[in-house]
Amino acid sequence: MDFIQQLGPVALGSRLRRLSEYLTTEATAIYAQYGLEFQPRWYPVFYLVAHRPGISSNEIAGEIGHTHASVSQIIKELVRHNLLTMTTDPTDQRRRLLALAPLGQEVLPRLRAQTSDVRRSMETLLSETNADLWHALAAVELQLQRQSLRERVAQARQQREAAPVHIRDFEPADQPAFKQLNVEWISRYFTLEPADLKALDQPAAYILAPGGVILLAEVGGEVVGTCALIKMADGGYELAKMAVAPAAQGQRIGWLLGQAAIERARDLGAGRVYLESNSTLAPALGLYRKLGFRPLAQPIPSPYARADVQMELLLD
């Protein structure tokens, strides 16, 4: 599946950028088909000057919604390519008035013909999608004018940070979230190993069926953290597959999961909880020590290449 598509609405900017880059590439080729040495980014500025001779760069920026700096850069390019002229307003020496240069007047009829063909083609394309994309984009822009994306994200963050953390047991439908959180965490620091994939792809068979437990941390209905208790041959449990979503870090979710796992191990009659980690993960090791884990006196073989730390917590 397309990764941008898989990410969903959070990648709207990337999705639009990709579409914009495609359309820009196509537009450049279309101008060449019409014998026009013209850049797609020039179009709104050039066409506005053609319809309103004497307009200023500030007015253009306001009309098309671009920054004054970007409009000024486009105007410089159009003047350099002899498509526009720029003169000083006799009533205001600070104001520059724009008009089509002779070459611009020569280019305009061909550009109008191309514009007519492109408009007809785009209208057909949009009708084939069975979606009113143009008006949908206008609606999105209107909503962003009412409340900026930055304000919306800040509001979502406040809601997330204020929401209570709920620890619950794993259900079959949670497998994708369980895998995704752990894959993201492991891949950030290490390489996924076969033993990881066995447990993440089939948690019911490899963790639950032998007598283990999987706990999930949920905030606002979203799974943001996981940990597992894997039953060991000596009757103890291994604390494993602990992962917290980056966006949820700082809410003590790892601590809450660890405490819940230890209490569950006690309820199951375990004499100890064992774990494996890596010496480079200072925050995780600090959390384990805070939970009461201590280095294992005698190291044992591990199925994980990354495991160079072994700790245990003896339960009363």
UniProtKB/TrEMBL annotation:
According to the entry, every stretch annotated as the HTH marR-type domain falls at 9-154
Coiled-coil ranges from the UniProt annotation: none
- Which stretches make up the N-acetyltransferase domain? 165-316
Give the highest taxon in the source lineage: Bacteria
Gene3D superfamilies named in the record: 3.40.630.30, Winged helix-like DNA-binding domain superfamily/Winged helix DNA-binding domain (1.10.10.10)
Q: Which UniProt keyword terms apply here?
A: Acyltransferase, Transferase
What protein name is recorded for this chain? Answer: GNAT family N-acetyltransferase
